[in-house]
# Entry
Amino acid sequence: MECEVVSGARSPPGGIVLESELFLLHGLLAPSPLAGWVVLAPRRHARWWWELDERELREIGPLAARVLRAQRSALGAVHGYALALGDVLHHMHLHLVPRFASTPERLHGRGAFGASPADMLSESELARAASLLRAALSERA
Ligand SMILES: [Zn+2]
# Structure
């Protein structure tokens, strides 16, 4: 899936949130229970962290921190998780998952991956969060 997003073959709700020379930031391709849950992935195909080159490694930390800050400032998140699992998709990606004051405990942390269909937000809610994040991130670019 990541390969398809970076190649432009698939577009998540809300589109691409941020593009840098080395990375893409986009919303989940699957239904999402949390507004502003985004995925950071290298544009170049790298299977996992150990395949990132020096430039990518230097960029990913500051970029992730910028996104986590934007989730707080633009969306009102009270916390942000950074989760990388890598069992399913073999294109390195980092989930940056906001937690809001209103987020039920079952969706905290990795619980977000176990959300039920009733938890999922509409495409318009996801697109709205994506555009708020995009605006906050472009201010600082
Ligand atoms: Zn790939």
